[in-house]
Amino acid sequence: MLKNFPKVYVLTIIFLFTTLGVSASTSNSLIQKQLIDGVTRYVNQTVNPDDSEHIKVKTIPLDNRIRVNQCQVPLEYEMMNRRKFTRQFPVKVSCNATGAYWKMFVQVRVTEYIEALVTTKSVGKGELITEDHITLSLIEKRNVDTGNAISTEALIGGRAIRNLHRGFQIGANDVCLVCKGDSISIVAQSSNMMIKTNGTAIESGAFGESIKVKNNSSDRIVKGTVGELRQVYVNL
User: Fold this and answer.
1) Distance CA 30, CA 117 (A)
2) In 3D, which of 126, 158, 125, 162 has the Cα closest to residue 228?
């Protein structure tokens, strides 16, 4: 029978079905967006009430093929027994409208960031570290070596002990404040006195490390702890 229809009617029917399909798809996308936005707000208010820039919440988008019915009452959200160390977890979303109840689970990812020092450019082995080489940046907490320095005092003026790429989280162990062969100050101290003399580094060391140094006055080799730039402390 369809072949007897005038062409204009056939085209009109095709257009109507296409339009309805696009309209339904658009409506579903809008409902999904409202749901995702609501989940994001709920999780933010729960895990980040102070709106810290160190915590980021991302709700995983739903598959476009999932149909979500418009809820005639406000949606209800419930965080499903999330443990502190869990980065991704489900949130239960419920529509409790009379006669039109539905629920679904939406995945949410919470990422925590902390401040760390990173390199602003590539640094070659043996290169002098300056203020231009490092900056404070937010790094995902699970990727941060918490033992690394957040103070530039343990870095600036020292030399890189290995090649460092741009964006590398730099720490005291990556820099020798006293490098082998450096002319240094040996600071001998006790509870009530301090003596300073010139010396030469026999080994390289980062802040807080114990290394061997030579007293240039006596040629005696002693072991001390790296403190400030090119200074080694020994006990009297």
Assistant:
1) 41
2) 158
> Whose CA is closest to 223, among 176, 233, 194?
233
Q: Categorise residue 81: left if φ over 0, alpha if ψ from -120 to 50, beta otherwise.
A: left
pLDDT at 36 over 60: yes
Eight-state DSSP code of residue 208 = T
| The pair of three-digit structure tokens given for residue 61, joined into one six-digit string | 């988008």
Q: Which residue reads 């019915």 in tokens? A: 69
Phi, psi of 142 (to 5 degrees): -70, -15
- Are the CB atoms for 60 and 108 separated by under 8 Å? yes
Cα 216 from Cα 183, distance rounded (Å): 9
Q: Exposed, middle or buried: residue 175 (CB in 10 Å: 0-12, 13-18, 19+)?
A: buried
Return the closest-CA partner of residue 37 out of 75, 83, 79, 90: 75
Helix (H, G, I), strand (E, B) or coil at 3: helix
Place of tokens 């005291």: 172
For position 15, what pLDDT does the model report? 39
Asked if the model's pLDDT at residue 28 lies above 70, the reply is yes
Q: What is the pLDDT of residue 149?
A: 55
Structure confidence by residue, pLDDT tens digits, 131-171 = 999 999 988 988 887 666 567 888 999 999 999 999 999 98
Whole-number Å distance between alpha carbons of 87 and 82: 9
SS3 assignment, position 183? strand
Strand pairing class (221-226; 210-215)? antiparallel
Nearest to 32 by CA among 79, 64, 57: 64
